[in-house]
Write a structure and sequence with these properties.
This is NlpC/P60 domain-containing protein. Belongs to the peptidase C40 family. It comes from Paenibacillus swuensis. The chain has a 6-stranded antiparallel sheet with strand order 3-8-4-5-6-7. The termini are far apart. Helix content is 38%, strand content 23%. It has a single domain, classed as endopeptidase fold (from Nostoc punctiforme).
């Protein structure tokens, strides 16, 4: 009987947290959640399929911000941000091929970023995942304060 009570309590807490998260979604969260699960497509820039920079370009376009369709080009924009100062909407960059920046995602908070993975399509990953920790290069802040307020609006 006690195990069942603990399970039910845990389930109730989990559901209340999930409900709280849904109601507190930012504009960025809402845009990203519409895209999670879309397949990876090299060179893709539409809901038919995205590559990593096509995904970030598409998301930022929803907020009237133009990004080039290349992770290396995107890494030249804005200002450098340290990992411990990341905020929602910052771009995070990785070296997945051993020859410089080759992957980009958008930081969504709580140590997570959204990206188009060649294996999983559009998904959310943790910066602390061993794969990404080893390959992290830099982050860039491309949003002005005005754009940032638009992106995090609920």
């Amino acid at each position: 009987m006690r195990k069942v009570s603990v399970f039910v309590l845990g389930l109730a807490v989990s559901l209340s947290l999930q409900v709280g998260m849904v109601s507190a979604q930012t504009s960025l969260d809402k845009e990203v959640s519409k895209l999670v699960g879309i397949d990876y497509n090299y060179g893709g820039t539409t809901k038919s399929g995205f590559d990593c920079s096509g995904f970030t370009s598409y998301v930022f376009d929803r907020f009237d911000i133009d990004l080039p369709h290349s992770s290396r080009s995107q890494a030249q924009l804005g200002s450098k941000v340290s990992k411990d100062e990341l905020r929602e909407g910052d771009l995070v960059f990785f070296d997945t091929g051993g020859d410089g920046i080759s992957h980009v995602g958008v930081y969504v908070g709580d140590g997570s970023f959204a990206h188009a993975s060649s294996k999983k399509g559009v998904s959310i990953s943790k910066l602390s995942d061993s794969y990404y920790v080893k390959r992290y290069v830099t982050a860039r802040r491309v949003l002005s304060e005005t754009s940032f307020k638009q992106v995090i609006a609920e």
